[in-house]
Amino acid sequence: MARIGNPHDRIDGRIKVTGDARYAADFAVPNPLYGHLVISTIGKGRITGIDDRAARAVPGVRAIYTHLNQPNLQPAGFFGSGQGQAQQSWRPLAGPDVKFYGEIIGMVVAESILSARQAAAVLGVSYEAEDPAAIIDAPGVTVEQLPDVGISVGDVEAGMADAAHTVSQSYETAPNTHNAMELFATTAHWEGENLTVYVPSQWVKGFQIGLAGNLGIDPQRVRVLSPYVGGGFGGKGTLFTWTALVAAAARDMKRPVKLYVTREQGFTVASFRAETRQDVRVGAGEDGLITTFAHSGRELSSRPDTYFVNGAENTTRMYRADNIQTSVSVVHADRQTPGFMRAPPETPYFFALESAIDELARGMNMDPVELRIRNDVDHDPVRGVPFTSRSLVECYRQAGDAFGWSNYTPEVGSMADGDELIGWGVATSTYPTQMAPCAVRVSLDVTGEARVQVASHDLGTGAYTVFAQAVHEKLGVPVERIRVELGDSRLPPGTIAGGSVSTASNVSAIGLACDRILQRLGAQGGQLEVEAAFESYGQTGIEEYAEWIPPAVSGGGRGSLHAGGVQIVGGPEESYAAFAFGAQYVEVRINRFTREIRVPRIVGAFAAGRIMNEKTARSQYLGGMVWGIGHALLEVSEVDPRTGAYMNDNISEYLVPVNADIQQIDAILVPEVDTKVNPAGVKGIGEIGIVGTAAAIANAVYHATGIRVRKTPIHIEDILPTA
Amino acid sequence: MIPFTYNAPGSIDEAVATVDPMGPAGQGGAFLAGGTTMLDLMKLTVVSPPSLTDIQKLGLDEIVQEGDQVHLGARVTMAQAAEHPLLRDGAPVLSEALWKAASPQLRNVATLGGNVLQRTRCPYFRDNVSPCNKREPGSGCAAIGGINRLLAVLGTSENCIASYAGDFANALILFDAVVETERPDGGRDIAFDALHLLPQDHPERETVLEDDELITGFRLTVPEWARRSRYIKVRDRESYAFALTSAAVALDMDGDTVREARVAVGGAATVPWRAEAVEDFLAGQALTEEVAMEAGRIAFEGAQGYEHNAFKIPLGQRTVAKALLDVAAIDQTPTGGGSE
Prior knowledge:
The structure holds 2 protein chains of 2 kinds. Helix content of chain A is 25%, strand content 23%. Chain A is an alpha+beta fold. In chain A, the strands form 6 sheets. Chain A has a 7-stranded mixed beta sheet, sandwiched between helices. In chain A, strands 7, 8, 9, 14, 15 and 16 form a 6-stranded mixed beta sheet that branches. In chain A, strands 17-24-25-26 form a 4-stranded mixed beta sheet, sandwiched between helices. By secondary structure, chain B is of the alpha+beta class. Among the domains of chain B are: 5-53, no CATH class; 226-328, Enolase-like, domain 1, CATH 3.30.390.50. Chain B has helices spanning 12-18, 38-43, 78-83, 85-88, 92-99, 104-109, 112-116, 123-126, 168-172, 276-282, 289-299, 312-328; strands at residues 5-7, 30-32, 51-54, 63-66, 69-73, 178-183, 186-191, 214-221, 229-234, 245-254, 257-266, 273-274. In chain B, strands 4-5-8-6-7 form a 5-stranded antiparallel beta sheet. In chain B, strands 9-10-11-12 form a 4-stranded antiparallel beta sheet. A 3-stranded parallel beta sheet of chain B has the order 1-3-2, with no helix packed on it. In chain B, helix 10 runs antiparallel to helix 11 and helix 11 (289-299) packs across helix 12. The N and C termini of chain B lie far apart (56 Å). The chains are: A alpha+beta, B alpha+beta. At the A-B interface, helix 3 of A face helix 12 of B.
């Protein structure tokens, strides 16, 4: 098998660009009604009255749901607590209490979208409002220490006292909202006792099981379809609060109900990346060897739910250290429950780590690349187990050569060019190699047609193509003759599209199924002559169902696969430590008058085991780095602390990079063989690209200006001379 | 969106007779041109006009030279104006202010008449919930004390700090432009720098336009030396973002010395903001970096910063300075018509 797979064009590319790929909102249902959510306009308190006279008078209005006539729904199980599949622990419209600004407090159902929106706009809601504690630093938040989460190795206090060079700093990261291009459209269609739901989902199996639980019906009666997803980024990973509401309304009305969540509503009714506050301490000897590392985080969550990401679990695996200590606390505030967003733990925590390492390098006048190479390790510093493979140093070398790091001059401002201040910065990328139980069905017939079916997902990442390539490699059938079916909860339970598990898990399972087909045809190890093989087999087609269960999955994994459970294993937890690694080099240019920060060049090198498809992998890396630029310089969900409202709840003021912001960008795919991680030899690549980018940019900003910005996003005002 | 009546009259007379009284705070009727702001605000129910009077059949979509003046029809699109040689070559500041605004899709439909009336992007105006004197006179201003990073530092009052969001107006104001309007009882000319009203005690009154008054076009005088002009727009990202600060500058230079300067600032003020004190200061000065920085300082005299936007004062000063130096550095090789 090639270490870097064929850069096959996306097999779904044509239908996507011609509009034939159907997303959730594109599915037509007979004679639908339209729903529109009503959300709270206070940040905390209770609803004291609903005046729906004007709303009911709007022509075409069929129903108005509020807590006063809530549909009969069972409570949701909060995914983050391991109790279920939902994004949060509560069900909508459960009572008059308002937990946060923008909470769902009602839903209008009408004959048209316009009628539903109009009625929602004139629905009278009176409140008894309280002052919310809506941001992480607000008085009135509740801080929950997590005693069972944390690492303690050696003696950090002694290590810091003995260190020749130390850094002790605090870092902040901002709340971010996914803002996928595709809005959260949801359609529920009952046919008798059977429910079909069209909803953008990164986990159709989980949505099916969770939704059946909400509705109190047999999961066999629920089908969730999400064949294409217009951007997920983690925001479509767990069951949305309103899904059951739409389904219940459709049941009541005896007609399909179609609902669109507006861009503005998407800021509060779904999840987000929570803000963090982090403290990092690093101690090193005269030789630059790190002896001591401490990393603690405070993360915002909602009042009822404890959601946290604890990226210190992975920052501790990057460099050598004898004394290690980590801790996490959750700050319960009056906001919605946060959730996954690309590299949930690593994005914020590596901003802190890789900024601190740069500060350490500055403090000891050492090249920041050299410092990192010097502290590279071949075993996990926490548990002492070996890495399955680790190509961090090679990534630094290859990306550094491509970037031209040998021309780096370390003095602040030394690389200025006319009115442009220039800064260079580097940072490490990583993502744990994770896998999950996965079942697939593969078929092959005498005409040479093959098909793979699995309730996994393609979020635009290239999964359709890569899964076809996996079948092609095993069976030899041309990719063009392999049909891939995804995003349907009726298919064998695949994986949640999260934790970068998809390729490793699905390709491993596909491999198993294909091996069984070859075995039945007596063709293992050799070239498959399809027609001849079927001739002697005595049948014209074969269908194989196979489950791949990662060895580290404990006994319950198999059952939970069919019951809406997720058991993700890998990373630092097993007898090996399994991670993908990368290195990013960036150049920033800053006009000396106006101080706009631009990134004309960025080079990343990544080693992630076997790469299935060179082209789609490169896209993943580039997309991650682009997002990293946005995370560093643009993205912030602005919360008004007085109300808890997101004040930039649109894509005009919630800024992400546009084409003009991205100039030279390159991803180098560093070949790596890893036979230990899984049968496919694949490490996940979906998330690593964003990790470290923000720190590399902050480090470059320091190099250009001498100003160390320890927060994201880095804005003009953070580096504007005050004189 | 609340249902409304739609009219598409065939003549200006009919249009101004048809429109429902527009009223303050934009809560009455409205003319519809490109609709890029109006339809947004209607979807958010920030404005809910009982009727829209579409002016698409009225023509008003030409750019013509009339003697030493340029005439711009009110329905000329931003894209059309940005690409027109009279602006692109004759006064780059006008063309740049247009193409640095919005996105190509928006510029293809948004019109000049609508653009100069673009409503603020103040989030407290747009959220339809917070106290906002512009949206609901007398209710207060939630932007003061709130998330106001994008809002104004010049021309504010205790009642409103909403920034004027457009770009083109900040350049148009340099050229002693006149706004041509029509009403049922006849038309009038309004000096462009008198079109917009400071918020003062009545932020809901944004312009001097009457309840049934339609902008039909603009006349401006573009001096030959306006070829030496630029629009500098500072923003967090490179494109498709509102200005944090901007500066429109045109310079008539005699060697290194300024003969005449035209300077306006954007992104930082409640209305299009011509900096006449800066123009007076610069006349006769050799344009060094120190002079440029001093000009920037003068432009922001009297500015008032709020919780998150005080940085706009030093940033705006630097933006003016950079714009002046950039314009002074433009190579003015004679192009045939010039005298230099």
